[in-house]
UniProtKB/TrEMBL annotation:
Segments crossing the lipid bilayer: none
Gene3D superfamilies reported in the protein's UniProt record: Glycosyl hydrolase domain, family 43
Biological processes per GO annotation: carbohydrate metabolic process
Organism: Paenibacillus hemerocallicola
Superkingdom of source: Bacteria
Pfam families: Glyco_hydro_43 (PF04616)
UniProtKB keywords: Glycosidase, Hydrolase
Cross-referenced InterPro entries: GH43_arabinanases, Glyco_hydro_43, Glyco_hydro_beta-prop_sf
A molecular-function term among this protein's GO annotations: hydrolase activity, hydrolyzing O-glycosyl compounds
Name under which the protein is recorded: Glycoside hydrolase
Pathway: Glycan metabolism; L-arabinan degradation
Family: Belongs to the glycosyl hydrolase 43 family.
Amino acid sequence: MISRQNLRIRDPYVLTDIEEGLYYLYGTNHLIGFDVYTSRDLEHWEGPFPAFRPEAGFWADRDYWAPEVHEYRGRYYMFATLKAEGACRGTQIFAAEHPLGPFRLCSDGPVTPRDWECLDGTLYIDERQKPWMVFCHEWLQVHDGEMCAIPLTDSLDGPSGEPTLLFNASGAPWAMPRGTGIDYITDGPWLFRSGGQLLMMWSSFGRDGYAIGLSRSVSGSVLGPWTHDERTLFGKDGGHGMIFRDLQDEWMLTYHIPNKSPEERAVFIPLKEAIPEWSVKSIEI
């Protein structure tokens, strides 16, 4: 059993199983592969259990980052970032019959464009039950980090169209450039609906370090257009968050803090849903 305070993890992602009374925690754990932990209280964790290990000859040999696991049509799908020497970083999709895995290849290589440096793909199902992946086109390649969306096949085994640019990181009033003055980062998108609105939580760097902000789709569609809140949801050197329902059916926010390795830990903070829109007051730990 590992306490939350002793579990080093970045980019935490929680899947809740109400029937089992169990939480599954995924994240970046600096392995060639992905692990999962289980808990009944978000404070004490069992594991790690190997959720995915690459077989010999698998294309990716580094940067195993930010796995998310979504339940979709009775199966579990992992969206994860991977890279190899001579290959662009991208998001690949894996599938399993259980949250513990083992996860097997679903997509044939990355779903993101093969000549783009990309990361942090997340699944979004629109109002017509059409699957999309929202992902980041990295600042390393485009300087002003891009948030993009690409339609997926119903079986989630690949794209069903071309990517669309949703917005650039510099469009958010709270986002600050890195040292060069022209490099803005997009990280960790997470989409959800609240008060009839489609919102996106995502990370970049703000005045006080790594941060989480909110953007809102004017049309209610994943294709936007998107506007950006003036203030951060959290702005004090923590980020890459997502929202989940706990076992008491209350909304929770998780993200890692601080952003410095090897000190990063997952935090779990109750949220109150305001009507008609999500509260954007800064969260104090």
